[in-house]
Amino acid sequence: MMEALKCLYAGFRGFDEAGSAVPMMDGPLKPNTALDEAPVVLRLPEIDNLTATPAGLVASQGAGLLRLRSAGGALDAAEQQVFSSEISCLAADASGALAVGLDGQGIAIQGGRHDGLQIKEVNGTVLRAPTAALFLDPDTLIVANGSAEYMTTDWKRDLMNRRSSGSVWRIALGGKGREATQLARNLAFPYGVAVGAGGLLVAEAWRHRVVALDLAAAKPPRAVLSDLPAYPARIAPASGGGFWLALFAPRNQLVEFVLREEDYRRRMVATIDPAYWIAPSLSSGASFLEPIQGGARKKLNMLKPWSPSWSYGLVVRCDANMRAVASFHSRADGSLHGVTSLAESAGALFVGAKGSGAIARLQEQDARS
Amino acid sequence: MSSDTLTRIRYRYLPDHLIGEILSKRWIDNAVPFLALVVLVAVFGIIAPGFLSVSSITDLGRQVAEFGLIVLGLSIVLMSGGIDLSVASVFTLAVLASLIGTNVEGFSVGLTAIGVVFLGVVCGSINGYLIGYMRLRAFLTTLVTLIIFRSIYDILFLRMSTAIVASFSDSDFLFFIGSGTILGIPFSLWVTLIIAVGWHIVLSRMRPGWRLTAVGGARRSAYNAGISVRRTVFFAYVWSGALSALAGFLFAARIGSTGADTGVGLEVSALTAAVLGGNSLGGGRGSVAKAAMGALFVLILSNNLTNFGVSGPVNSTILGCVLISSVFIDMRWLRNRHKWLSKIYVSPAYLQLPPPPSATDANSPYALNDKLRSVEIIGLGQIDGPEDVILDRDDNLYCGTRHGDIVRFFGPDHKRHEVFAHIGGHPLGMQFDRDGNLLVCIGGMGLYKVTPQKEVIKLTDETNRSFLSVVDDSRLRLADDLDIAPDGRVYFSEATIRYEQEEWATDALESRGNGRMICYDPRTGTTKTEIHRRVFPNGVCMANDGVSFLFAESWIATINRYYFDGPKKGTIETVISNLPGYPDNINRASDGNYWAALLGMRTPALDLALSMPGFRRRMARRVAPDLWLYPNINTGCVVKFDEQGNILDALWDLGGQNHPMITSMREHKGYLYLGGVSNNRIGRYKLPDADPNWTAQDFYWGREGSSRT
């Protein structure tokens, strides 16, 4: 009751209700151009799910699984296999098994002990949007299901419809997928998983935070990194301890405002192509049908780096407690936007920017705080 | 959709933009004291018997006359940034001097009046000299002179009281001043009214008043602006002293006696009245109306409290509380008014546009291409904001810049340039008249003419004020584009009357008919608004029939044709509606058709928001302006169309690499020259099959500049 009254008063006075202000990029998240300066090693439209395996880097492009090989200073891509649906996540274990998330169709295991296993649903829940997976051991797989309603490609609808129907599962592969534990539910688009000191770390995109879950049973999630200025995606362990966190799109005060404007949001979702919504995006500026904000108007033919933007490139280096220590940016005028996946290999971090369709190589000493 | 209909009706008939306009008026400061006064009169009118009777009002009128003069004098000092606590002492001294003059010494009434006012001038001069020229603190100085003047009164009163009581004046004129009426209004009130009206005119309409306000508002700036600060301050105190003395004379004429307690505590009442009316203690803000309202309020309150038997000390306490609360309200008001204003000034209207035609479809007349990506660039980095470009017969290229210059690039290669004329405002639309003069619309300034000899002449900067407008719409705020009829009449557009040059795009958030078409007639030198309430009227171009012109309404993506002469005189026809972008300047093409620039493209998200004014209003209140949804002006294009509204050609630069926005284009000898209001360059595009000898001047005005037939 008090909350409702407060909300009403805040609406009347035009205050910001809780959680709608967008945090500044400051401290360890202070903007720089490190991502734009990093050398691009491969240009590949729609590159996603960059993953380190014992046999080298793999990645996906649409429904195609690619094996990446080092070729001089750059990378070389070779298509290995084409799946029936867009690949939405990849996970490798030390023995060479690969878990392939297929958008709308669940998980397929390739190689290793459980080669050929297909997991379409667990405990009656369809894995419609497998956004992230992780082998705890060769027989145990963690799977994040981003949304119970929308496929991964429809992530914008999931956000703009204000859904929080994601779940995280621990699946015993030996039981043919039937022995599964739900570690968390009602998450707002879990998009990345990693094992850390506090348990299982999960990037909860629409709540702009990383939470820690218990590895064995369902317990309330505990926020370990919150109030992020962008939507988090995959988490990759860093060789020097700690983690790399990819953030795929910036938060924007106008988007937060639209999220609270029921009527407008509903009509926008119902009548407009998602590419032209007031919503975060993996890449922007390609079409004149995209909305723009006052600060993004070009002056003297320049888009200012600090312009408000629907897309952004951001990689954050976190310590073992998931505290941000350094960050790498591609700002509004940059060219490496929409980073969804990261993988460390041969002493360098490879940054997969799905929005810009490029993989860049980042050395740790480039870190700036 | 019924909810949409309701929204449309609500936004059409409830003009909420007026709230912001009213809040932006200077006189809105009077709203709070005026309401307080109305409430007070209503309350005492109900509870006090005889409050509204003629005798009561006449008596009140006499008191207001005297008290009002003191409050006016004090307000003048407050406006100059000072304070005068000695008004009551001067008043008392003047009462004594008047009685001595008329009763004891038997001077004539006129001589006494002049002498008393002179006494006030002397007292005020002492204050003014000490504060204005010696730079002493106003508060302390006038506190000291308050004590000194009062002491002089006490000394003189002791000596003269017997003489004053013993004699009295039998002058009828003095009696008339004290008790007579003209047309039912007390004589003294007439005096005060005349002085008040005079001061109102001085303060609101004349230089001395503006200087006074300037000194009070920002002393240093006033000094830097060349105002004699010391003299202005000095005369403020002189006026305060003179008006207080005049009040004392009127008081003496009415009462005919004085006592030990005459004028005690009057400075507090006067200060309460001045501040209550809304005269700022900090200086720079005040008016005669405020002083009058404050004086009325305080008098009505204290008189009625006395009538109700409230004792003097309690009465003073109440007045003190009123003073404190009015200072508090004044402070809150001052601090918050501009916040409220900035939150509510943007007031969107309902606008439902049909879905725009697709430009991505290859069969569309607007089909996308990259023709403009290869344009040659002229003046890169040398100009800022060439909204419009124009060429003369000698191939020289003219454009305006944000620095307030008209820059001329010398033909035929346009490598060298010079500042052709410096005007001061951002030049927008341009056109050559029959004699080769360059007529130009200047944002924020009006319509100007630059002769070939570089002489700058103002043609007009105001039009007739509309009858019911709240903001003063007679001044031209954003004159945008013009064209000249064959008979010499200049038709130009004013895009919006609610926003300044730099905020023009914010008008898109409102999408209301804030703009108008205006006609300047050089034969009579008159300016008249021809078409009211158009949505961001922009480009103007004479049609080939010579009796009509085309003009764009940007935010509703429409190009209209208006007949100013001929059989269809006064009618408006729509030529093109539902363009995929926002049309800006329109100019003639060599094949008899027209070019139009689209300054930006429509986006589905904004089109939807246009039909939801409540959404935009909340956005303007809650989201930072740099993050508001704007029309996409990062991509522009040029279209060619005919008088029937058919689109004949479209020229694009996708991604806006060469020309992020195009606000104007001008065809000249086979080339199209492109300008953009936030660009740092001019583009030149070779038209594949245009007449290489065609110039707009020869086409419109004839080869020798002779009349077109």
Automatic annotation (TrEMBL), chain A:
InterPro entries: 6-blade_b-propeller_TolB-like
Origin: domain of life: Bacteria
Gene3D superfamilies in the record: TolB, C-terminal domain
The protein, known as: Strictosidine synthase
Organism: Dongia sedimenti
TrEMBL record, chain B:
Main subcellular location: membrane
Organism listed in the record: Dongia sedimenti
Keyword Membrane attributed: yes
Name of the protein: SMP-30/gluconolactonase/LRE family protein
Membrane topology: Multi-pass membrane protein
Subcellular location field: Cell membrane
One Pfam family, short name: BPD_transp_2
Chain ranges passing through the membrane: 34-55, 67-100, 106-129, 136-153, 173-202, 234-256, 288-305, 317-334
Domain Strictosidine synthase conserved region, residue spans: 480-566
InterPro entries linked to this entry: 6-blade_b-propeller_TolB-like, ABC_transp_permease, Strictosidine_synth_cons-reg
Keyword annotations: Cell membrane, Membrane, Transmembrane, Transmembrane helix
